[in-house]
Amino acid sequence: MLACEFEVISDCAELLRRLDHMVPRPAQPILPGRQYQLAACRDGGGYRLEENGRPIGRERDQAAAARTLFWRMQVLALEAVPEFSRIHAGCASRNGRRIVAAGPARSGKSTLMARLLFEGFDVHCDDLVLLRRGQALPYPRRFFIRPEAVALIPQLAARSIDPFEWGGWDPGSLALDPLVLGFPWRIESGPVDIVLFLERDTCDTARLEASPKHAMAERLMFQSTSPAGGPGDWVRDVCALVDRADCYVLRSGSLGASVSLLKEVLESESA
Fold first, then answer.
1. What's the confidence (pLDDT) of residue 153?
2. Which domains does the chain have, with CATH numbers?
3. Does the predicted model carry a pTM greater than 0.90?
4. What beta strand segments (E) does 54-203 contain?
5. How many CB atoms lie within 10 A of CB 271?
């Protein structure tokens, strides 16, 4: 996972199966520089958790133990890349052009990214992008889709889903792996051509409005966090992202209409 390599051991096969349906497996060009061993072992009526042989806690059941190990992996993976700013956004590409779609919680980032999988896009992540000097590195994590959003993606709702795909960080959510669905999944750094900011709308269609770069930078600052270098590097990363990209606000009340608009703008800009 980015610069980290994890080994997980347990005396409970069911726990390992749960964790196996949570961790991502995209192709990643970054060579791991840190190694960790995580363990979950039965202990009395629960599970004892360890990291490199050091106790890190207890959980009452296998599902909770798997989630705790999974989130510990996320913390360690992000700690290994402190030089990046972090922005809450999805990332996808089509015909060689890369899109970053940011927005607040429940603005529809994960649902949009999941739908784009079935619409001819290569989708790299759904919720977190790492920024550094104008380059965007999608964060490798399965797409977490809420149950009510599955119905908005007809191609997904029609598929048979392994029961263990349900769960993830939020009981009841779907931990979606593009590879399991037959799509390529690759994580690599690159420049961004289009920056979107998602806003929910009560209408039954969608509108794509051009945004001044300074206004987009301000929006993104509220949806991102600083790297280890501090506020100066943070501002630099966000400004470098929007400087070379076309910026839009996507006001959406219809997922299908949003997808159509994205295809149109990509085709018009590449013409």
1. 86
2. 4-79 (3.30.413), 85-270 (3.40.50)
3. yes
4. 54-59, 85-87, 89-94, 97-102, 122-125, 129-132, 135-138, 143-145, 166-167, 173-176, 194-200
5. 5
